[in-house]
Amino acid sequence: MMHDDEWIAVSHANCEHVAGPFYHGTRADLSVGDLLTAGFTSNYDERVVMNHVYFTAMAKGAGLAAEMARGAGRPRVYVVAPTGAFEDDPNVTNKKFRGNPTRSYRSALPLKVMGELDSWEPYDEEFIAELRRRVEEGMGEIIN
């Protein structure tokens, strides 16, 4: 477990100190070797075009992202490798807790699919339903 005084912010200049494996959750059907790139619509809101590709070093977190993603496909968690520099995900870093406890990152450069997990530790269905409700409410606030 990392202590507060041990946290080092991850930036494009120093991301090499972050060890994987890394994961990306989605409902898309991907293959080994595929590249996940920015410039496509969000997994959560079709009105938003993403400037970054998001990933995490926690399989459970990627599983939650897969559960939350729009689409008809089944939730999937892929093992991914960044093809270049990345940084802490500013949407979660230092928001409620110091540092990046979710080990979430983003990159403007592609992520390469290295494989797919067969299973991961799931979140409780009630938690997922509540989170979906909050996301939907939040999207309405952004538009209105």
The largest sheet, given as strand count, sense and whether it forms a barrel, is: 4 strands, antiparallel
Radius of gyration: 15 Å
Distance between the termini: 41 Å
What structural category characterises the helix and strand content? alpha+beta
CATH architecture: Alpha-Beta Barrel
Sequence stretches where pLDDT stays below 50 over 5 or more residues: 140-144
Approximate helicity band: 10-25%
The run of helices and strands is: EEEHEEEEH
Q: How many domains, as an integer?
A: 1
What's the CATH topology name?
Answer: ADP-ribosylation fold
How would the global form be characterised? globular
Q: Quote the beta fraction.
A: 15-25%
CATH class category label: Alpha Beta
User: By CATH's scheme, which homologous superfamily applies?
Assistant: Rifampin ADP-ribosyltransferase domain
Strand arrangement across the biggest beta sheet: 1-4-7-2
Number of helices: 2
Task: Provide mean pLDDT, rounded.
Answer: 86
How many β-strands, per DSSP? 7
Describe the structure concisely for a colleague.
By secondary structure, this protein is of the alpha+beta class.
Keywords:
single chain, 144 residues, alpha+beta, 2 helices, globular
Report on this model:
With 144 residues, the chain is an alpha+beta fold. It has one domain (18-143): Rifampin ADP-ribosyltransferase domain (ADP-ribosylation fold). It is built from 2 helices and 7 strands; from the N terminus they run E-E-E-H-E-E-E-E-H. It has helices spanning 59-68, 125-143, and strands spanning 22-26, 35-36, 53-56, 76-82, 87-88, 104-107, 111-116. The strands form 2 sheets. Strands 1-4-7-2 form a 4-stranded antiparallel beta sheet. Strands 3-6-5 form a 3-stranded antiparallel beta sheet. The N and C termini lie far apart (41 Å). InterPro entries: Arr_sf, Rifampin_Arr. It comes from Dyella lutea. Residues 22-120 form the Rifampin ADP-ribosyltransferase domain. This is NAD(+)--rifampin ADP-ribosyltransferase. It holds the Pfam family Arr-ms.
